[in-house]
Amino acid sequence: MSLDRLYKSLVVMAIAIAALILTKDIVMPIAFAALFSVVLLPLAKRFEKKTSRIISITLVLLIAFLVMGLLFWFVIAQLASLTESLPDLEGKFLALITSMSDQVNAIFKIDTSEQTQLLKDALKNFSSYFGSVLLSTSYFAYFFIQVPIYIFLFLLYRERFKDFLLAVWPDSSLKWKDEIQQVVRGYISGLTIVTIIAGVLNSIGLLLLGIEHAIFFGFLSGLLTMIPYVGISIGAALPALLALVTKDSVWYAVGVVAVHGFVQFLEGNFITPKVTGSKISVNALAAILALLVGGKIWGITGMILAVPAVGILKILLSYSPRLKPIVILLEDKHNELTPEEIEKID
Hints:
This protein is mostly helical. The protein has 13 helices and no strands.
């Protein structure tokens, strides 16, 4: 690749990233709607055999809303149970903080006033971050109104997208489109199954340790597995802190971390490869870089979309003889190029 072409590619990439940042409120719902449209398309086609397209799409969306409603009911019920125990946890948490403060003073010679100031600074930073989270949370209502509308329109006008692609690439078989659909469906359905399995295993481990609200924290940790490498750490920290507050031994917190570490080992080495397959698998370096870039561009939402985006990018790059070597840097297994492909690149 010449320096001129590399320079132009970097400029295009920079413009694309800037556009994604500036238009994230518009593009994020469209991206999620596109992913879910691909997943719901087979069910919509099945319903269309017996009724009209508009009715079939409406039925599919109603089923999706029903599933989401059941999930929200479960979360709200668990949060209500957790809220009831907050007064007791508050006193235990303050006692833990006092004990830790005495230990810090004895070991590091930092008096209580300095610790209080450090804690205030940390809380101030957390408050500013939490405020931004609340602002983004207020956007969720608007987000969940947009996504179903986009899904409806994507499913309704799906042939027009295909005709558009054929008009742009008249000689293309659009085989990459079918592969992307397979990868997205496999990723979403596989991720759902992995989340449920991880949630069940985490819950069982926490129940055996006698941790309060084990089911809630277990499935919360399972849900956070959607964020590779980072989510499991957050999912383990919350029940570990609860164990420190409610249990009389630090070994319970160690046990919580051990349970999550064991589940993460099973999920990464056995569950996910078996469930989601190898098409979307990317190596650790590519996944971490994708998470960092996605988080920088779109925050937590970007981190969730980062891995499927890299999987889609792998497919698109594999159809370009000149760019196919980049696939080797992204995928989790070695992909040998044929002599003909190497000759084309040269």
